[in-house]
Design brief:
single chain; 226 residues; alpha+beta; CNF1/YfiH-like putative cysteine hydrolases; 19% helix
């Protein structure tokens, strides 16, 4: 369902044109300059991401500290930047929201923090983009415990874990936890689209776990259809 977007043979990202919104997950090759050259019709807004759960109104004139931003302007496109964290894009009939869901944000349930900003219009669509997948996301028991505590159904928290050769570590399924948080916040009728590529193993995408401080950032955005 997602369309592969290329330029001169290079992957720019994956897009999805849907009923009320346009979703885009960028690759490592897709830069800030590309935002305006490939999508000149949009007015992009950025954040100073801090791995929290603050949700604010998207403002193209100022990058404020937060990890999610929303808008009901048809040409305004909230952008998030990731390099293993989970990009989550939300859309209702009249509002969109872009969420930077790192493990700390997921542990704080940043997804639930977006719900008060959709009081007049229920979220109908959510898209989960490329991030570090379960077979690459190894964490210590302390991080695992924090993430399990954020499970909407504590009785199912064990289902996010996968066995690890080291007794003090586990592999953790962030995507499944995000799906469950989305369903808990917005109901079982929510349509979830997934563009799942493992950022650590797929070199088309930036990964902090793979490249450390040299890692770039994957740019994702969502915009209302005019």
């Amino acid at each position: 369902m997602f369309q592969r977007e290329e330029r001169a043979g290079n992957l720019l990202g994956y897009s999805l044109q849907h009923k009320h919104a346009f979703f885009f997950f960028g690759s490592q090759a897709f830069t800030r300059d590309d935002l305006w050259t490939v999508f000149p019709e949009y007015d992009f807004a950025f954040l100073k991401q801090v791995h929290g759960k603050a949700v604010i109104d998207a403002n193209p004139a100022s990058a404020c500290e937060a990890d999610a931003h929303f808008t009901n302007f048809a040409t305004r496109a909230p952008v998030i930047q990731t390099a293993d964290c989970v990009p989550v894009l939300l859309a209702s009939k009249s509002r969109v929201c872009a969420v930077h869901a790192g493990w700390r944000g997921v542990a704080q349930n940043i997804i639930a923090a977006t719900k008060p900003h959709f009081t007049d219009d229920r979220v109908q669509f959510a898209a989960i983009g490329p991030h570090i997948l379960v077979n690459s996301f190894e964490v210590g028991q302390d991080v695992s415990a924090q993430l399990q505590a954020a499970a909407p159904d504590p009785s199912k928290a064990i289902e996010y874990l996968r066995s690890h050769p080291s007794a003090d570590k586990t592999y953790f399924d962030l995507a499944q936890l995000v799906r469950d948080q989305l369903t808990a916040s917005y109901g079982g009728q929510l349509k979830i689209f997934e563009c799942l590529h493992d950022t650590k193993t797929d070199h088309a995408f930036s990964s902090f776990r793979r490249d450390g401080k040299q890692a770039g950032r994957n740019l994702s955005f969502v915009v209302l259809n005019a």
